[in-house]
Amino acid sequence: MNWNDVIKYANQGSPEPDRRVEKTEEEWREQLTPEQYHITRQKGTERAFSGALCHAHDPGKYACICCDTLLFDSALKFDSGTGWPSFAEPVKDNVIKYEKDTSYGMVRVEVMCNVCDGHLGHVFPDGPPPSGLRFCINSESIKLVEKEETTASE
Hints:
Largest sheet: 6 strands, antiparallel
Structural class: alpha+beta
Radius of gyration: 14 Å
Order of helices and strands: HHHEEEEEEEEEH
CATH architecture: Beta Complex
CATH topology: Metal Binding Protein, Guanine Nucleotide Exchange Factor, Chain A
């Protein structure tokens, strides 16, 4: 995956997810903390360097806080210096939904969980090789799942 793929998905639609999770706003509010709800369901952003996972480098995979879909592998997490957890690519092409975001007077690509539409953050073309991508993700939108837990379900 590279920036051209991201732009194609943002303009023409993301790959179909393996499954869908849909809930009412009331159900999401009951399941999530107020901060998680604000970020994932209302497209909020946590303050830079404030997220619990910003400096975490424990082995494992990161899953969507809303629907438990595996999204990122810790092996592809890197310190971007931006204040948010950053990843070079998702675990599978179809777990991330890409949408053009023109808020704040700029053009960016928003990334969401493709299974439940939970807002995760944004992707930028300034990451490390080989993808050159930086998935800039809010800590509140993901959770670390230890390797032992993910190995049994893969």
